[in-house]
Here is the input.
Amino acid sequence: MANMISAAALFHRGDLRPAEGEVVVGLTPEREIELLRREGRAWNMVHAGTLGVDNDATIRHRVAIRAGVDGENAGHDDTPAAAEGSLQSDTGGFTWDAATEGRERVVIDTPRTKAVIGFTDGDVFELGAVTIRPGATRQGWSTITVTLMEGEQFGGAGRVLIAATGDVENTSMGWKDATRTSVGRNWGEAPSLVEAAPASVAVAVDSERVSAWALDERGQRAEELQVASDDGRALLQLGPPYRTLWYEVEIR
Here is the structure.
C-alpha cells in the first residue's frame, strides 16, 4: 500500500508519459480463430506477440492490435538497439535493465516521480535533481520511490513523499526451502511484515530549505529526520530505526 500513491502519480496523474511511438498489428477474425485453435492455451491466448511483435517493443512503445484487418502485416519496431540487456521507453522515463544477472532493476525518471526498483543494493542512481542510493536489504532487493506531491519540479518549493520497502511476508509464513519459491498452503498469519528498506536520498537544494518526517501508519508526521548537507544537496538517511515505510519531505 505504501507504494500505491507513487503508482497513482505515475499512471493516473500521468507522470510517466505514454510512449510516443506505436506498433500496430492487424488481426482478422479468421486468423484469430485459427491461432486460438493452433496456439491458444490457458493464460496465453492470442496477443501481439503471437502476431510477430517482439516482447521488447512493449517497453519501448505503445502496442496495439487492430481488429478486422490483415493480420500478416506485423508492426515494426525501428528503435535503435540499446545496451545489451537494457530497454528504455522512447520517452526516456522508464528503463528495464537486465544487463547483469542477479542485478536486474527498473529505473523511473520523470519530472515529478523518481524510482528504483529491483536488485540495487549499494548502487547510486543520479536522476536529475534527485540521487538515490539503496542500502543493504534481506534479499538485496528494494523499492524506493520519490514522488512530488506538491510543486512542479524537484528543487523548487513543494512536498515530497518517499516510500522505501523491501522484503514482505506474513508472520510465520512457511517457505518450503531457501529459494523461497513456494509456501504450499502455509501462508502464515497476520500481521504482514514489511522490511523498512534503508536508503539515502539527496535532493539538489540547500539543506536549510528542507524538513523531513517519518510517517506513521495513518500517514501522519511522527519522528523528524535529521537533514544533512552533502556538497550543496539536502541528504536524508532512511531505514529501520524509524520503523516506517514512508516519509514526508517539505522543501521551502
About this structure: The first strand starts at residue 22 and ends at 27. The domain at 93-251 is CATH 2.60.220 (Chondroitinase Ac; Chain A, domain 3). The helical segments are 4-11, 29-39, 57-60.
